[in-house]
UniProtKB/TrEMBL annotation:
<keyword id="KW-0812">Transmembrane</keyword>
<feature type="transmembrane region" description="Helical">
    <location>
        <begin position="56"/>
        <end position="75"/>
    </location>
</feature>
<keyword id="KW-1133">Transmembrane helix</keyword>
<feature type="transmembrane region" description="Helical">
    <location>
        <begin position="33"/>
        <end position="50"/>
    </location>
</feature>
<dbReference type="Pfam" id="PF06127">
    <property type="entry name" value="Mpo1-like"/>
</dbReference>
<dbReference type="InterPro" id="IPR009305">
    <property type="entry name" value="Mpo1-like"/>
</dbReference>
<keyword id="KW-0472">Membrane</keyword>
<protein>
    <recommendedName>
        <fullName>Transmembrane protein</fullName>
    </recommendedName>
</protein>
Amino acid sequence: MTNLKTTTDRIQTYQEFWPFYLKEHSKKATRNWHYVGSTIGFICLILFFVTFQARFILLGLIAGYACAWFSHFTIEKNRPATFKYPLWSFASDWKMWFLWVTGGLNKELKKHQIEQ
């Protein structure tokens, strides 16, 4: 069983953070909103490399965070981890998205005993 930190404890390693991140995204609807935002962000990144227009980077970040934060405030009813751990949260969002795209997320959720 994974030992998750409470919100008052400061997580020290990414190994500790990842299960915490998954727990903060325990509801499928929350994860779905993250996938929408990350996919829009990914498309915007591709558009940036095709057009070299910086506005696509900004648009991708805004869309990604708007979808994610909406889901935390309305569905998960928690505070986005990005407020306390911005870099690890950003990396974990992409890790979660990649695992979802490749079909590995359910195994990871089960490993950390997070209901699906």
